[in-house]
Amino acid sequence: MQIISAPQNFNEEELYVDLQPIFGHSLYLKCEGFNFAGSIKLKAAAEMVAAAEREGVLHRGSVLIESSSGNLGVALSMIAASKGYGFLCVTDSRCNLSTRRLMEALGGRVHIITEPDANGDFLGARIDYVRALCASDDRYVWPNQYTNPYNWKAHYRTTAPAIAHQFPRLGVLFAGVGTTGTLMGCARYFAEWHRPVRIVAIDSVGSVAFGGTPGRRMLPGLGTSVRPPLLDESFVDDVVRVEEADAIRACHRMARHGFLFGGSTGTVVSGASAWLRQHDVPGDLDAVTIAPDLGERYLDTLYQTNWLHDLYGEHVLSDEVVAAGSRRS
Ligand SMILES: Cc1ncc(COP(=O)(O)O)c(C=O)c1O
């Protein structure tokens, strides 16, 4: 039995899904959605808040403020409620309605940016808004997940050692790219480990994390429109870029087996499968990837037929249906 008095004190750290029966590769998926914030962002939020408290910048009367596509906002709303701080999430029109409602239910306020900045960039516009508010009122405390080292340190301290403990023969780790907190925390940990681990970053097509031209991205969480300040490419061995339609197909394939995950999980799983099709992992080594959240927050988007057809065309799932049909026959 585990008894807690603060929601951030619970996190399921030991759950993996074996994806072999679904994708045909030996690949283990670490599930990070089983906590009261419903995502891996609980770890970054808790670590950044604890650091701000230690450093004396966060105290009674403070209002946390953060730019988030949703999951970090939910985690910060929860921690702020638990500790008695205010919270304001600055997001944009791509934030799911259910995620916004969750933040509000937890007592957070949500400000939605509807116009991109002069470069057509929503993230830039969100950050400009946060900066302006912080300059106007010193009650605001901005953890700034994009530059805060405690974002990656959370994963260096928890996620990576948990994987190392369960998979002492880890050969390759696939991590999605948002702020790169998860990727960098794990990559830095395994760079110091007793044996080499191949670190593969999974990014979305249309993201500029590793260069390239920006493009439309509708799945929140993964990909970025500016180069992530936390990213140090020298820790990354390979990069795979995934089309959103492929990420969606991976999500629906898992759903057909009863596993409902979010869009960034579809992205990492699709990217990991593509990489595993082209590379041999020695049979005695394990391949692991990370599911940042679960699927319920995406019922109105990636699990909704009209949304899918409007954005990705009517045939976005047809290959997947064929694949699922042939698998069952
Ligand atoms: C659903 C989801 N997946 C992936 C990520 C990316 O994680 P990171 O910011 O650690 O790169 C996030 C971050 O917000 C997320 O919310």
Automatic annotation (TrEMBL):
Keyword Cell division: no
Xref: SUPFAM superfamilies: Tryptophan synthase beta subunit-like PLP-dependent enzymes (SSF53686)
Subunit structure: Homodimer.
Gene3D superfamilies: 3.40.50.1100
Transferase found in the keyword field: yes
CDD domains per the UniProt record, alphabetical: CBS_like
Pfam families from the UniProt entry: PALP
Listed name of the protein: 2,3-diaminopropionate biosynthesis protein SbnA
Species for this entry: Amycolatopsis pigmentata
Cofactor: pyridoxal 5'-phosphate
Highest classification ranks of the organism: Bacteria, Bacillati, Actinomycetota, Actinomycetes, Pseudonocardiales
Residue stretches making up the Tryptophan synthase beta chain-like PALP domain: 20-293
Keywords, ordered alphabetically: Pyridoxal phosphate, Transferase
